[in-house]
């Protein structure tokens, strides 16, 4: 029974990912040279979208269906993560933050998708203008003892969030911590 559920969940996820990963090929109104067929027409435009937003809007209902049908399966969690990231990319910040929270809750903070969801949430909070909330999320991630988290990247984002809030003193502390604790990090420069 569990294997059948997993197979159905994976099939729904696969269908959604075909749309999510489709190529974006803007329709050209004029060929590059006389007689040349536009790129979208050359590829038959099958599975392609004129804009990233069009592609994500087409993927959203499929990702949500996969996530809602099998919410606690690996495929369902994966679908919900991509659903949240699509919402964030489309500027639907409140919905994205809620979906990232759901991913973190279902996947657990010690899983890959749980960690990615927490970082996605913080990034979305900054984009939504919720800088103080983002700072709190980045600080919690920076304080975590989870060795799998990229602490140098988290400190960089924390510093940027402090800068966005106008708190240059705390931003300097976060950036200094990168240099002091992660001297070989590409962020040290």
List the helices and strands and how they pair.
Blueprint: H1 2-20, H2 39-42, H3 52-69, H4 74-89, H5 93-107, H6 112-127, H7 131-143, H8 151-165, H9 168-181
Helix pairs in contact: 1-3, 1-4, 3-4, 4-5, 4-6, 5-6, 6-7, 7-8, 8-9
Description:
The chain is an all-alpha fold and 189 residues long. 69% of the residues lie in helices and 0% in strands. It contains 9 helices and no strands. The protein has helices at residues 2-20, 39-42, 52-69, 74-89, 93-107, 112-127, 131-143, 151-165, 168-181. Helix 1 (2-20) packs antiparallel against helix 3. The termini are far apart. The mean pLDDT is 89.
What attributes characterize this protein structure?
189 residues; mainly alpha; 9 helices
Going by helix content, strand content and strand pairing, the class is mainly alpha
Please tally the helical runs, counting DSSP H or I stretches of 4 or more residues.
9
Cα-atom radius of gyration: 20 Å
Shape: globular
- Poorly predicted parts: none
Q: Give the total of beta strands.
A: 0
Overall helicity? 55-70%
Mean pLDDT: 89
The biggest sheet, with number of strands, parallel, antiparallel or mixed sense and barrel status, is: none
Cα-to-Cα separation, first versus last residue = 53 Å
Give, in order, the helices and strands: HHHHHHHHH
Beta-strand portion reads under 5%
In short:
The chain has helices spanning 2-20, 39-42, 52-69, 74-89, 93-107, 112-127, 131-143, 151-165, 168-181.
């Amino acid at each position: 029974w569990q294997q059948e559920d997993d197979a159905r969940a994976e099939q729904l996820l696969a269908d959604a990912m075909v749309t999510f990963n489709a190529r974006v090929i803007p329709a050209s109104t004029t060929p590059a040279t006389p007689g040349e067929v536009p790129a979208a027409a050359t590829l038959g435009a099958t599975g392609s979208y004129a804009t990233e937003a069009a592609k994500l809007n087409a993927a959203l209902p499929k990702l949500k269906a996969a996530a809602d049908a099998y919410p606690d399966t690996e495929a369902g969690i994966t679908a919900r993560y991509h659903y949240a990231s699509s919402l964030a990319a489309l500027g639907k910040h409140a919905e994205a933050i809620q979906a990232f929270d759901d991913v973190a809750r279902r996947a657990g903070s010690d899983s890959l998708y749980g960690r990615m969801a927490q970082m996605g949430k913080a990034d979305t909070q900054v984009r939504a203008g919720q800088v103080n909330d983002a700072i709190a999320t980045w600080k919690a991630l920076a304080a975590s003892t989870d060795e799998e988290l990229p602490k140098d990247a988290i400190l960089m984002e924390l510093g940027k969030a402090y800068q966005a809030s106008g708190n240059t003193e705390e931003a300097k502390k976060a950036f200094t911590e990168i240099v002091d604790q992660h001297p070989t990090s590409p962020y040290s420069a």
